[in-house]
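User: Can you help me understand a structure? I only have the sequence.
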Amino acid sequence: MARKKITVVGAGHVGAHTALWVATKELGDVVLLDIVEGVPQGKALDLMEAAPVECFDSSVRGTNDYSETAGSDVVIVTAGIPRKPGMSRSDLINTNVGILKSVIENIVKYSPDAHLLIVTNPLDVMVYAAWKLSGFPPQRIMGLSGALDGSRMRSFIAMELGVSMRDVHAMVIGGHADEMVPLKRYATVSGIPVTQLIEADRLSSIMERTKKAGGEIVSLLKTGSAYYAPSAAVAEMCEAIIKDKKRVMPCAAYLSGQYGVEGMFIGVPVVVGAGGAERIIEIDLDQNEKKAFMDSVTAVKGLINDLGIGK
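Assistant: Let's start by predicting it. Here is the structure, written out as tokens:
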């Protein structure tokens, strides 16, 4: 049986590490694409030279030519400029939509049946733009939001309690921005509600830290943004599609009335499998959670309206 084909667009830190995770998980053969000559080729060769050490047999090929991505099963889009200190996600819109237009045009041309996983910020707006620009069914397009934000919240909870990361689960919904909504009622440690394990004020601090986690790393790095966790999280989404795992994870997915939202992409719990975003799971939200979620939806809508891409 032929291996699956996964293209990663953008060979910067996020893209190169995504290629690494995808290859080591042996999800398929990887094509790493970038517009800068030599960079994807060099990083792909470096990864191939690591294969005997880590014993993975996925091939990794670097290219500047979209024709080499033809027939991809999954395309992960990381291309775009990263946030810099003091820069909001909305500041990125004009530049990154311009980059995205070219990317999507080539994906549609060479891989019309692919699933699209969008990492480029501002995330929720870029997923919407990718949908409008591609004409793909919305189930085949998802964005990295809660899969990353939830992982960050899980890590903070595990570090606070001194327990295994494996046993912590968390749910973060809404836009992938400061208006995201960490749901403390849905955070558990081996099924135990985290509200029973962490004092209310400490838990509130963890939720706030989760909201600002990306910015915290940007301010520490000073010349870039996070890449280990984002690349690992989008590789996990890719794995759910490739292996038809039916994973339940929060992702930016298309809502057609669920949660009272129509015609836009926002972070919600999704069953992710071979059909992409196969099912939206509607969870009960209390009054405060619902208000926070709708505030997040409103913020994303504002950015979409500024985008000027067909409604």
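Now, to help you interpret it: The longest helix spans residues 287-307. DSSP finds nine helices and 14 strands in the chain. Let me know which part you'd like to focus on.
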